[in-house]
Write a structure and sequence with these properties.
The chain has 303 residues and is α/β, with parallel strands linked by helices. It is built from 11 helices and 18 strands. Helix 10 (251-261) packs parallel to helix 11. The longest helix is centred in the N-terminal third of the chain and has 13 residues, at 93-105.
Length: 303
């Protein structure tokens, strides 16, 4: 089942011809979650073959324009396409104020509900849950109230062994019970334990998104062991003072967090417009954490 990250944009605030503002789509078993919504998301989704109508939840990190200016157009286009399903938007309270303005100014007659769910950026807390996934906020530090998001699959059920179904004539109606832990009693009264009937479940997958923020070593306790960490890497480390002043992170700092947190893979993005060669930025990160990749528009990472 799918668990893949689609990079729509990975630039920072100043526009360039090389990168789009920040936005991503996480595909979790066919459910599409948008993370941040910078300008140009509609065109990027069309280029990548992603349906705007399939997005049910949008998670916004903070109310800076390069993370939210795509919302007005996206909501308007959803209405033009005839959307009727609710759209849920999660983020800091300032995002709710933006949505209220848009509703009164442009969207008084749209045909679907836009529901805002405020997120306390100071807390690591559950902000969304369904049958297959949980989403928790990650407290970050930036010039506005800001949070990241941690997506975790819920534990999967074990796999039932096909040969056991055939050998003991197990009916389809009992397969889910056995996956959930039940044993099976054969016709001769022999009890076949659950462990013999199944193989271990596929490990659950996880993704953590951290943009924009200063370097926070304590995040290692929240994102520890995730399969994929996306972390901003706005500057080369030679500009670490500038990073601190603007409340951003260097590539070396992002890689240090990934190493200390024991994550499996790091993707860096939110590149400063001043950086002309991201490969040099990648080299800095890989010197600390080798399993690092560069974000880029159109990149798809399967987890």
């Amino acid at each position: 089942m799918n668990f893949e990250l689609n990079i729509l944009g990975c630039g920072s605030a100043k526009p360039t011809t090389r990168h789009q503002p920040t936005s991503q789509i996480l595909n979790v078993r066919g459910k599409f979650f948008m993370i941040d919504c910078g300008e140009g998301v509609q065109a990027q989704m069309q280029r990548m073959g992603l349906s705007m109508m399939s997005v049910g939840h949008i998670f916004i990190s903070h109310n800076h324009g390069d993370h939210v200016f795509g919302l007005p157009g996206l909501i308007g286009t959803m209405d033009l396409l005839g959307r009727t399903a609710e759209l849920h938007i999660h983020g800091p309270q300032q995002v709710g104020e933006l949505l209220e303005f848009l509703a009164h100014t442009y969207y008084s007659d749209i045909q679907f509900k836009v529901l805002f769910h405020p997120v306390d950026t100071r807390k690591h807390a559950l902000v969304y849950e369904d049958r297959s996934i949980t989403v928790h906020s990650i407290p970050l530090q930036h010039r506005l109230p800001t949070c990241g998001y941690l997506f975790r699959e819920k534990p999967n059920l074990p796999h039932i062994r096909r040969e056991m179904i055939d050998a003991f004539g197990i009916p389809v109606s009992q397969i889910n019970n056995i996956k959930a832990g039940a044993s099976w009693t054969a016709e001769d009264g022999t009890v076949i334990p659950h462990e013999r009937l199944t193989t271990p479940a596929t490990p659950s997958r996880s993704y953590a998104y951290c943009s924009d923020t200063v370097y926070l070593p304590e995040l290692k306790d929240i994102v520890g062991g995730v399969d994929l960490l996306y972390h901003e890497a706005t500057y080369f480390h030679e500009r670490v003072l500038r990073a601190g002043q603007t409340m951003h992170t260097t590539a070396v700092q992002a890689a240090t967090l990934a190493r200390d947190a024991g994550v499996k893979k790091l993707c860096i993005g939110h590149f400063s417009a001043s950086i002309k060669d991201e490969n040099s930025l990648l080299g800095e990160a890989q010197s600390i954490f080798p399993n690092t990749v560069l974000a880029n528009e159109g990149l798809v990472i399967s987890i």
